[in-house]
Amino acid sequence: MAVNTGLVVAAHGRHFIVEADDRQRVLCHRRGKKVDCVVGDRVQWRAAGDGGVIEAVLPRRSLLWRQDRWRSKSFAANLDALIVMVAVAPPMAEGLLARALIAAAHAGIAAQVLLNKVDLPEAAAARERLEPYRRMGVPVLEASVKRDAAGMRARLAPLLAHRVTLLLGASGVGKSTLINALMPDAAAQVGEISQALNAGRHTTTTTSWYWLDDAHDAAVLDSPGFQEFGLQQLEAAELARWLPDVAEHAAHCRFVNCTHRSEPDCAVRAAAERGDIAASRLRLYEQLYEELARPRY
Ligand SMILES: Nc1nc2c(ncn2[C@@H]2O[C@H](COP(=O)(O)OP(=O)(O)OP(=O)(O)O)[C@@H](O)[C@H]2O)c(=O)[nH]1
Ligand SMILES: [Mg+2]
Ligand SMILES: [Zn+2]
Q1: Would you call 91 helix, strand, or coil by DSSP?
Q2: Which residue lies with its CA nearest to atom 7 of ligand 1?
Q3: Which of 60, 79, 180, 296 has the fewest Cβ atoms within 10 angstroms?
Q4: Cα of 145 to ligand 1 centre, how many Å?
Q5: Per residue, what are the HEC states of 245-279?
Q6: Mutation test of ligand 1: which of 83, 173, 178, 222 has the most ligand atoms closer than 8 Å to its C-beta?
Q7: φ and ψ at 217, to 5 degrees?
Q8: Which ligand approaches the C-alpha of residue 171 most closely?
């Protein structure tokens, strides 16, 4: 039978939902374990029985992934942009935010931050905690997806157009609420298979691809909330490159291989003492450095 091309729009363990070029959705499994695919992959597949078999994954233009101590996890492939969503409440874990931004920079994916639930009283404090990110040039948007869906849509529309954007963030920040506010047909798009697998659950358990427009020119991906984000794919020595606020000063250290922890004439530590690098960010750098410098086995 003929080989077709298609797009992986959802993944459920060993099963994948592939959107064929004629926009039909087909439940597929993989030819073998070596065929390693994730949502966003373009694949070659063949019809088999009621469904299909994925034979090969086409080359990726990007892949966002994390490497924990014992396993690696791919979030999605062929992304143009990442929106890390944080909420006024539950309060954001800055470490997760920072790690997601580092992974995106390392993967060559443009990233921004979206602070949701600004209708809640603690908004000012949350805004303040994001100030170091604004200062280092990360775009920080604000929204109240639930209270002001129209305003959110107006602000996000230009950012989402003509590209594929992944929404990432801790559980409960409002990713799915955002998806539903953007795309009234979201539930219909994921189809019965995904709905059945996520039945009765409020929390999202799989990454899913949603077309923003009929022309299929833009897409937004919902994903399950994450609680850890390992960066073992990086070397400790290159870490500073991926933190824009640290990188900005690192070139002025006395030693070219300065690790910015205890060396003399370290421009990074000097900047932190002047307040040009936030204390929380230097702490985060040190923590990540320790984590990456630990022996791996
Ligand atoms: N106050 C307020 N609550 C909101 C807002 N947006 C979403 N929520 C609420 O936050 C809760 C969690 O929203 P979800 O969209 O399910 O969060 P999620 O990020 O998809 O969570 P996971 O699927 O578990 O990762 C729900 O009770 C929403 O109603 C907002 O702008 N303001
Ligand atoms: Mg969700
Ligand atoms: Zn230094």
Answers
A1: coil
A2: 174
A3: 296
A4: 8
A5: HHHHHHCCCCCCCCCCCCCCCCHHHHHHHHCCCCH
A6: 173
A7: -100, -20
A8: 1
Ligand 1 atom closest to residue 225's alpha carbon, by position in its atom list: 25
* Nearest atom (ligand 1) to Cα of 85: 19
What is the residue whose two structure tokens read 């969503």?
85
Q: Is 225 in the pocket of ligand 1 (CB under 6 A)?
A: yes
* CB of 147 sitting under 6 A from ligand 1: yes
- The two structure tokens encoding residue 238: 């290159």
Lowest mean pLDDT among 87-91, 192-196, 239-243: 192-196
pTM of the predicted model over 0.90: yes
Strand pairing partners for 209? 221
Nearest partner of 101 among 258, 260, 288, 276, judged by Cα = 288
Query: What span, in angstroms and rounded, lies between the C-alpha atoms of 165 and 75?
Result: 12
What pairing do the DSSP bridges indicate for beta strands 51-57 and 81-87?
unpaired
Dump pLDDT digits (tens) for 25-75.
999 999 887 778 999 999 999 999 999 999 999 999 999 999 998 889 999
State the Cα–Cα distance between residues 248 and 272, nearest whole angstrom.
12
Task: List, as one string, the DSSP characters of 215-231.
Answer: T---EEEE----S---B
Burial class (CB in 10 A: 0-12, 13-18, 19+), 22: exposed
- Ligand 1 pocket member 95 (CB < 6 A): no
47/35 Cα distance (integer angstroms):
16
CA–CA distance from 212 to each of 71, 166, 264 (Å)? Answer: 32, 12, 52
- Which neighbouring-strand residues pair with 52? 28, 47
Cis peptide before 90 (omega within 30 of 0): yes
Average pLDDT over the chain reads 93
CA 174 to centroid of ligand 1, rounded, Å: 3
For ligand 1, atom 13, the nearest C-alpha belongs to 174
The tokens of 71 are what? 């396993």
Q: Which regions of 39-144 does DSSP assign to beta strands (E)? A: 42-48, 51-57, 63-67, 72-77, 81-87, 110-116, 140-142
